[in-house]
Write a structure and sequence with these properties.
Radius of gyration: 34 Å
Distance between the termini: 83 Å
Order of helices and strands: HHH
Largest sheet: none
Oligomer: single chain
Number of strands: 0
Structural class: mainly alpha
Number of helices: 3
Length: 102
């Protein structure tokens, strides 16, 4: 909807309400419309906040996945080095224990 159409539509509604509602009810109707405005703004603000928080969580999850992938790659590299060395994990642990005792 174009802005001029919107303004015309809102003006038509205001004129309809003013012509068809008792004058003493107009302040209540205005208050209700103001409350509707405030409530809609609150809902929109909450939706924006939730969307930003969701985006933060999704980014954190993506970062965590990248870090996990890096660690898995390092683990594979360590396993490859261990395989190439011919040592077993048991040998390495015994060597560490021996060094710690000395």
């Amino acid at each position: 909807m174009k802005s001029c159409e919107l303004v015309t539509y809102v003006t038509a509604i205001a004129c309809f309400i003013a012509e068809n509602c008792p004058e003493e009810e107009l302040p209540i109707i205005c208050a209700m419309i103001a409350q509707l405005n405030d409530t809609l703004r609150t809902i929109i603000a909450q939706n924006i906040f939730c969307k930003k928080e969701l985006e933060k969580l999704l980014k954190a999850e993506k970062d965590l996945e990248k870090e996990t992938e890096k660690l898995l790659n390092k683990e594979k590299e360590a396993e490859n080095l261990l395989d190439k060395s011919g040592l077993t994990l048991k040998d390495i642990l015994q060597s560490i224990k021996k060094d710690a005792e000395e």
